[in-house]
Write a structure and sequence with these properties.
This protein is of the alpha/beta class. It is built from twelve helices and ten strands. The chain has two domains: 173 residues, D-Maltodextrin-Binding Protein, domain 2; 132 residues, 3-Layer(aba) Sandwich (D-Maltodextrin-Binding Protein, domain 2). The longest helix has 13 residues.
Length: 311
């Protein structure tokens, strides 16, 4: 092992954190699984790494395909952390949906991140302003078989439309929308959704959510979802409020992550005075007081201790 490799291992300072130093298994490196370019997980994870570095905790940020990959990776590895949408976490723990019969029983939560809301954008020239207008249209839904695609398929079924669903990274699909290769772009992330902001700032677009009936259908089908309201002018050219559905995201870890490390990470994040400054507006919801929004993934004992101390 080189000196550089050793420095990249998880380092928890006993003096700073007032606790014994614990290390992962020999050769292990603590990684934070995020998502691809254009996602909200990636900049959040990069900011989180900076916050933790200030507390003498080193993590390496890794780009992935998003929640589903992150849940499976964390379930298999005590050295992995991940960002995960609660809808995907529900499927992972119950062995349904993408998990296809395999219950991810090793996954625990560390702390809440922020709320994910779902909505779509289309070029105004296409005259698409509601989900019902997407029948037979080409719709980008982010990574193939990812959470955004799964929820779009569900709401399309509720609405009775049959769009053509296209997979890809948020950054790629933003470019496809601008080029006219797809008719609409459906995404879920913290509002304002970065990938939608990127397209509406470059072209005249209509951003839209769901109808009352579509929201009711989604909440009946997915009990972990809540109604979301997006104020007018959140996006360039958005003249009226829009309604949709939303659910929370959490940072996850393997149940065998040492309690002291889980405690140190959670305590450092939730007690940070610079969290919003470093990560951005999404981190305003990263708080011990929001821990109760997660009723899907059990909290790691070390994280639970930190949350109780800060509540």
């Amino acid at each position: 092992m080189t000196a550089i490799d050793r420095r990249r291992f998880v380092a928890i300072s006993a003096a700073t954190l007032a606790m014994p130093r614990l290390a992962l298994a020999q050769g292990a490196e603590l990684q934070l699984m995020t998502a691809g370019p254009g996602s909200a997980f990636l900049p959040y994870g990069q900011g989180l790494a900076k916050v933790l570095a200030g507390a003498n905790i080193a993590i390496a940020v890794k780009e992935t395909k998003g929640s589903n990959e992150n849940l499976s990776t964390v379930d298999a590895s005590p050295s992995a952390l991940g960002a995960a949408f609660l809808g995907s976490a529900f499927e992972a723990i119950t062995g349904t949906g993408f998990a296809a019969g395999k219950k991810h029983l090793n996954v625990c939560a560390l702390f809440p991140m922020y709320e994910t809301a779902f909505m779509a954008a289309a070029l105004k020239a296409r005259n698409i302003t509601a989900l019902k207008d997407l029948d037979g249209k080409r719709v980008g839904c982010g990574p193939a078989a990812g959470p955004a695609e799964g929820f779009f398929r569900a709401v399309a079924d509720i609405t009775g439309i049959k769009p053509e669903i296209i997979g890809g990274t948020p950054a790629e699909q933003g470019q496809q929308l601008l080029a006219g290769a797809i008719d609409a772009f459906w995404q879920g992330a913290v509002v304002p959704i970065p990938s939608l902001v990127a397209v509406v700032d470059r072209a005249d677009c209509a951003v839209f959510g769901l109808s009352d009936a579509e929201i009711a259908g989604m909440r009946q089908r997915f009990p972990f979802m809540a109604e979301a309201s997006v104020a007018a002018a959140t996006y360039r050219g958005q003249s009226a409020p829009l309604q949709s559905v939303a659910a929370w995201n959490v940072v996850i870890a393997h149940k065998d992550l040492p309690d002291a490390i889980a405690y140190a990470i959670t305590k450092a994040v939730l007690s940070s005075k610079t969290l919003v400054e470093v990560i951005g507006p999404a981190a305003r919801s990263t708080s011990a007081r929001n821990a109760g929004v997660n009723t899907i993934v059990p909290y790691h004992p070390g994280a639970e201790r930190a949350i109780k101390e800060l509540s």
